[in-house]
Amino acid sequence: MMESRITWIISVLFHPLFITLYGLIILFHSGLYISLLPQNLKKWIYIIVAVNTAVIPLSLTPFYLYRKIIKSIKMSNAQERIIPLIVNTFLFYITYYLLTRYNVPDVIRVYILAGAVTLFIALLISWKWKISLHMLGIGALTGVIFSVSLRYNIDFNLYLIILILVSGLVGYARLRMNDHNSKQVYVSYLLGVIIAGVLLYYL
Question: From CA 200, how far away is CA 140, in angstroms rounded?
């Protein structure tokens, strides 16, 4: 019983809808040049990102359930994820557009764009295979932090160690809850690391 509760808490805390915000917090406290942005601008960025990547997707869940687009909040069937992923990908692109329009620093815009591309690839894969969105998300964040560290020559070792440990916990939780098999967990994580990492390094 205790183990089930712990795995559930881990899955909720590191739900993919929250991962983008966690990454933004890390970037703003990383010592990178964006740490020096005015507080009002940081607050505006936080609000835009939070509303589009977390609040709106969460608020749509009752509608998805009511319209039987999904059978449960777990979205156990890969096909159930298609419409939510389409919506979330669109919201990420809207966020990217807004940030671009107001000349937000490149690293933040590319970070959001990487999220949009990662979601789009998850959408394509979900037509045929059940990808782990939890592992894709935490993998993408790990790839982002690693690439930013390399590109800007910043010591992110502590963040990377924490992210790798968290990734292990999330993977363990998804396996123990029988939501995914080991192949889905490992492949999803590597996809996230590679896709987001490459985009952040080269764009």
Answer: 10
**Digit-coded pLDDT (tens) for 65-113:** 998 889 888 787 878 999 999 999 999 999 999 999 988 999 999 999 9
DSSP state, 179?
S
DSSP code of 153? T
59's enclosing H/E stretch is helix 56-59
Question: CA dist 127 to 8, 74, 80, Å?
Answer: 26, 17, 10
Q: Which two tokens stand for residue 175?
A: 């396996």
Question: Within 13 Å and on the Cβ side, how many CA atoms surround 158?
Answer: 5
Indicate if the alpha-carbon torsion angle 196, 92, 171, 121 is positive or negative.
negative
Global pTM reads: 0.95
Longest dimension (CA), the chain: 50
Structural contact between residues 192 and 142, judged by C-beta atoms closer than 8 angstroms: yes
